[in-house]
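Hey L., structure's done. Input below.
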Amino acid sequence: MNFSYLRIFKKPIADRLFVKHRLAKLTVGVITCFVFSGTHVSASENTEVLSLSEAIQLTLEHHPKLTTFVHKIEAAKGLIDQAGVGERANIHLTVEDFAGSGEFSSFDGAQTTLSIDWLLQSHVIAGRVRSAKVASGQQIIEQQITALDLSAQTSRLYIQGLVEKQRLFLAEEAVQQAKDTLSAIGKRVTLGKSPEFERLQAEVTLAQRELAVEDLHHTLLTTFYALGAQWSNFDGRYDLSGDLFKIPQLVDADEKFEQLLTHPALDLLVTKQRIAASKAELSRIQAKPQWQISTGIRRFEATDDFGLVAGLSVPLGKDRSSEGKIRRFYAQQEEYIAEYTTLHQQLKTQLYTLLQEIKHSTHVINSLEQKIIPSLTDAENLALSAYESGKLSYTQWSDILNKKLIFEQELLTAYETIHMQHIELQRLTGTSLSF
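Output:
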């Protein structure tokens, strides 16, 4: 599975309807990631830009879970080689008619036979090799599933890092807004136009928002530590690039349903079915009588002559020792077929639900960008003038300011949600992850 062609989209400015500098700043193409160590998050001049595709590639190359599959696949190759090794031939040396009585009391009348015998097992060996090769395919598919899951996890952490950086930016803007509000209220209190308790309320609001900024600093450190841990880098410094404020492009829904058929989880069940069938066939072959042939040479001491000897050994009766195993393997085949049908139906249901959720997220984003936030921006400007002229109370003015902050956060959350849904969509269909 190739994840090398992941894309980082750039947002066309004309497509966004953000107003005022606050939301305009949210569309910055490169988001600074932070140093993992220290109390506060700080950017470094030596950091390098790390794209999502590069982060995924690092995960695929260095994550310990994937490293284990290298050894598992090597072990499977060893089993294939071992399956091709048959039983060793046996050499027999037999001495007869000596150290007895009468004319057999000496070694002069002895007969010495040197022979070799072996099993005719070419069909059994071929069956074992086929079965081992089919079983080795399971490791490859499990590796693909693990790679897909780890890539999705890296993508989620990457986007989470970008989102939390933007959330920190909004929190810092909220602090600045609280400072501006406190300054405006302080002037009115000084002039006797507003009561003292309004200034105290504004101070509390400022303190709360400063605490929120502090919390986000620590959250960012945790997120980027978890991201670097995907490739065992716990102290790296880098920048993350990407535009959160772009709705991911979706292909036709019918195509997504067709892609479900290539999902590694379904391939794994098909492989398990093939393994069960292969084991059943191998057990059937092993249950057949295995002929043993022997040949050799015999020496007659009495006449100083030689003669050839040959033998054939064939088991009698039908070998019923494998009948139970064969039935079990056939039953496993039917079990995997049923699991395949069940899983495919579950994936289809999840895909349909996910597509509906993405449609809803798109609607939420469009509504926030095109209607709610622009209206709140206009209301914010009008409210400031109304408050300064005494036509609006502090509570009413504060409510309008807070509403805009809330909906800006909701817009950020909506974009986070749709990107996470898009990652799950790609993981669900087993396709390349892009952002």
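Residues 220 and 305 are 94 Å apart (CA to CA). The first helix runs from residue 20 to 24.

-- N.
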